[in-house]
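re: that chain from earlier
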Amino acid sequence: MENTEQKFLKELDDKLWKAADKLRSNMDAANYKHVVLGLIFLKYVSDAFEERQEQLTELFQTNSDDNIYYLAPEDFGDTNDYENALHEELEVLDYYREANVFWVPKAARWSTLKEMAVLPIGSVLWKDETGKDVKLRSVSWLIDNALDEIEKSNTKLKGILNRISQYQLENDKLIGLINTFSDTSFTKPVLGGKPLSLHSKDILGHVYEYFLGQFALAEGKQGGQYYTPKSIVTLIVEMLQPYSGRVYDPAMGSGGFFVSSDKFIEEHASEQHYDASEQKKHISVYGQESNPTTWKLAAMNMAIRGIDFNFGKKNADTFLDDQHPDLRADFVMANPPFNVKDWWAESLADDTRWKYGTPPKGNANFAWVQHMLHHLAPTGSMGILLANGSMSSNTNNEGEIRKRLIEEDLVECMVALPGQLFTNTQIPACIWFLTKDKANGMVRNDKKRDRRGEFLFIDARELGYMKDRVLRDFTNDDIAKVANTFHAWQRDEGYEDIAGFCKSVNLADIKNHDFVLTPGRYVGAKEQEDDGEPFNEKMARLTAQLSEQFAESDRLEAEIKRNLGGLGYEL
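^ sequence. v structure.
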C-alpha cells in the first residue's frame, strides 16, 4: 500500500476512534461497540448505494449503442416527466442487486439520518403505510428504524444487526457521531485533494479490523481474544489456494479468512484464466464463532461483500455445540485463541473427533487441530495458527498426539513466524499445514506430486519489517517467498533446500528429533557468503586488526586522561 493510502487510513482510524471513544464515559466498552459498528455499517451501505445511484444517473443520460440503460428525453412529454422517470428508475431495486450493492431504503439512508437527527423530538418524519404520521421519538430510535429497514430489504441480515435503543444514549452524543461520520467517505477516499485508489470494501474492512482490535483492548482482553494480522491471513490463503470448494473456519472471528479467500480469487483470475465473479460461485464458506457480537459482525462482513455463507443457526461453542457436524470441507483455515485452558467439559471425554488422542483438559491447541481434521474432506488441506509450544510440548498427551499426526503422514509443512505479530499478545506463533491426501491420488486438475513420507520446514522468523516500535508485519514479497517455496516443493518445480530458511525431510529425520516440529531444528544455520579469503589468512588479518584497535583505544584513553588532568580532574 502506498504511503498516502496508509496515511489516509491512519487519519480515518484516529478520527473515527476519537469520536467513538467519547461514548466511553456513558457506557461500558463491551456495549458501545454495538453503537459504533452499527453506524459505520449504515454509513458504508449508504455510501455504496449513493455511488451506484450516481453511476445509474450517468447511464440513464448517456446515449450510446451499447448502453441498455439510456432513457431518451424525447420519449417523455416534458422535462418534469423525464425527471420523474429518472427518479423512479433510481429506486428500482434490481439495478442495485445486479451490481451486488445493498438496497438501502430511504429511511435507512445516511442523508435521511443526518437530516432528521437534528429535528425536534416529536417532529413528523413521514407517513406509514396506513397514512399515519411517523414522529421522531429519539435519535437512537431513528437509527434502529434504519437498521430495521435494512433487515427487511436484505433477508441475509435478519436478526443480525444490533439495535442501540437499549443503551439509552443521549441524543446529542449520537448526533455528534453522525456528524463526524458524515465527514468520511468509503467510496471516494481523498487525501490532500488527491483521489486514492482504495476500494470501499477494503476501507470498511480496515476500519472494522481496527475498531475490533481497539474494542478488545478497551475491554481488557489481553492474549485471549485477538485478531489475526492481515498479512498472516493472506499467507495462509496464498499457500492453500482455495480456488473452489468448501472453506471452513471453526474460530472465524469477523470472517477474515473468508474475505481473503474472496480476494485471492479476484487477484489470481487473470493468471488462472477464469472469470472471478463466476469462479466465486464455486466457493462456499462455513464458519462458527462463540462470541455473539463477533458472529453477527462476520455475517455483516459477508453480506456487504456479497459472499454466500453458512455460520450456523447461532453463535456457539465449537467444541460443545458444533454447528456443522456433517461438514467435510476442502479447505480449513483458522486462528483459534492460543492455549485456551477452560475449554473442557466431561461430555467431550469420548468424542469421535479425538481420533489421534484425547487433548489435555488444560490446553485446547490439539483439540482445535483434531476438530479441523475431523471436518476435513478426504482430499482437503488445512492451515492453523498455533502457539509455538504445540511444536515441541510433551506434557499431558500432547507429544503423543503430535507423534500420531506425524506417523499418520498428515503433517505437510511447518512455518515458524517472527515475534511481535499480534497487537495484544506476545505469544510466539507458528502455522501448521496438514492434508489428508499427500499422494494426490484423488484430486483432479492439480499439479501436486506424491509427497508421502516427506515434510517441509520453513523458518520465516527473519522475514518481515517493523511497521512501528512494537509491531512486525510481512511484506508482499515475504508472503510470496514462503508461498512459492511451499508450492515449488509440492509440485517439484525447482525446489531446493536453503540453509537457515527451508528444508525437506523424511520421517526418519523427525524421529531423530523425537517428533519435535520446530523448523529451526531442521533448516540449520544460514550460510555465510564466501568471500574467497582462506580461513587462516582471514583469522590472522582480523587478529592483527583487533590488536591495532586495542592499541588505538589505549592511546585515546591516555589522551583523555591527559586532557582531564590539564583541567584539574583526575581519573
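The CA atoms of residues 161 and 445 lie 41 Å apart.
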